[in-house]
Write a structure and sequence with these properties.
Blueprint lengths: L1 E3 L2 E3 L16 E2 L23 E8 L3 E2 L3 E4 L10 H5 L2 E3 L2 E5 L8 E4 L1 H14 L7 H14 L11 E10 L12 E10 L10 E6 L23 H9 L4 E6 L4 E5 L2 E8 L6 E5 L10 H10 L2 H7 L3 E5 L4 H9 L3 E8 L3 E10 L2 E4 L9 H14 L9 E4 L2
Parallel strand pairs: 3-6, 12-13, 12-19, 16-17
Antiparallel strand pairs: 1-2, 4-5, 4-6, 4-11, 7-10, 8-9, 8-10, 9-21, 10-11, 13-14, 14-15, 15-16, 15-18, 18-19, 19-20
Length: 394
């Protein structure tokens, strides 16, 4: 286990116990494959493919031989750590088909970033160690087994959820030395059923999503369920998502389970600042966030889209947002994440006042639309930008 600048970093050299031996993969195919649902009926995370992958960890034996088998329930002891103490972490990834007359291959989008984050999340919860590269190989095998489930429409994808749970069956408050790693997959359409219609946000400060030194920079189960009640409150008031604030100065952090970005016109010129909160431990280092920052700061992307952007990672508050809005400089606000890719925000409510952003006929402003189209093109193999889209072979 290593430590860099106070940040815990999982070791990838914990010996043979931390390795999944893919050469021992056990493959059991279903004898009753399900009928594929029409793409227009797909709701995010509601339909699952025929198969799943699974492996278990025992402290004396290490990881079991991984298995791909028909999708089925998992049996757990009621005292399991994941049930009692939320020792659960996961990732969200996408598999897409290449479209528009290219090679028809199956592709994963920046999977190495997901695997490194899964390693960090598991280590933060003191779950048994594993090598993310082994998990990625298992994911590839599972995707190819169920590749018929990948939707054949642009903007649709196969959502992949690798998960690690602690299964130590004792009530003592301590780390789990037993675990299950499993992978399930769901064919999905747009995350927001309304398509590119903008979403509305209710800014919330009395409940916080994350705090310094906590788990906000990790994708762990305990980060999400405390947000369900604020989300219900926002929905009851007619808003789509919660905008999470932090501290007495109402610092802007994330939106729902997504990163949040604003595009601000610079003073005295026609250039723009692409602003998002910094990775200070309270913000999830999103794969789409990283992609958008890289693209927005790339001169070739700016030239192709006629956008002059400066990427800025900084702390900013609702007061800053209100001032930028009052000055007429707040041009776009975006929710960005694996499932949604990029979604526009049309209004933000805070302390009885509402910031109303310009709405665009296409549903996204010029920055949001350019980013969404570029990322989709990369995911679907129409653009080979920096090798972000990884082809899976048989």
């Amino acid at each position: 286990m290593n430590s860099t600048s106070g940040t815990l970093v999982p070791s990838k050299s914990d010996g043979s116990l931390s390795r999944l031996d893919i050469s021992k993969l056990v493959l059991t195919l279903t004898d009753s494959p399900k009928e594929l649902p029409p793409p227009e009926t797909l709701k995010f995370g509601a339909t699952f493919t025929d198969h799943m992958a699974i492996a278990t960890f025992n402290p004396s034996k290490g990881w079991s031989a991984p298995e791909i088998k028909p999708y089925s329930p998992i049996s757990l002891d009621p005292a399991s750590s994941c049930l009692q103490y939320s020792s659960t972490c996961f990732e969200g990834m996408k598999a897409s088909k290449a479209y528009h007359g290219v090679d028809g291959s199956v592709r994963l989008y920046r999977p190495d970033m997901n695997m490194r984050r899964l390693e960090r999340s598991a280590q933060r919860l003191a779950l048994p160690a594993f090598d993310g590269d082994d998990v990625l190989e298992l994911i590839k095998r599972l995707v190819m087994v169920d590749k018929r489930w990948i939707p054949s429409s642009s903007g649709y994808s196969l959502y992949i959820r690798p998960t690690v749970i602690g299964t130590r069956s004792e009530l003592s408050v301590s780390a789990s030395d037993h675990a299950i790693l499993f992978i399930i997959m769901s064919p999905s359409g747009p995350y927001f059923p309304q398509g590119l219609r903008p979403v509305s946000l209710l800014a919330v400060g009395e409940n916080v999503r994350a705090w310094p030194g906590g788990t906000g920079s990790h994708k762990v189960g305990g980060n999400y369920s405390p947000g369900f009640l604020p989300q219900q409150i926002a929905s009851s008031q007619g808003y789509d998502q919660v905008l999470w604030l932090f501290g007495n100065d109402a610092q802007v952090t994330e939106a729902g389970g997504m990163n949040f970005v604003v595009i601000i016109k610079q003073e005295g010129c026609d250039d723009y600042d692409f602003i998002t909160a910094p990775l200070d431990g309270t913000i999830l280092p999103g794969v789409t966030r990283s992609s958008c920052l890289s693209l927005a700061g790339d001169p070739s992307f700016q030239q192709a889209t006629s956008l002059r952007l400066r990427t800025v990672e900084r702390v900013y508050s609702m007061q800053d947002l209100t001032e930028w809005f009052t000055q007429g400089r707040l041009l776009e606000a975006l929710c960005i994440g694996t499932a949604a890719i990029v979604a526009a925000v049309n209004k933000i409510a805070f302390e009885g006042k509402v910031i109303t952003l310009p709405e665009h006929e296409a549903g996204l402003g010029p920055v949001g639309m350019a980013l969404r189209e570029k990322i989709l093109a990369i995911q679907e193999g129409r653009d080979e930008y920096q090798g972000w889209s990884v082809t899976i072979s048989e």
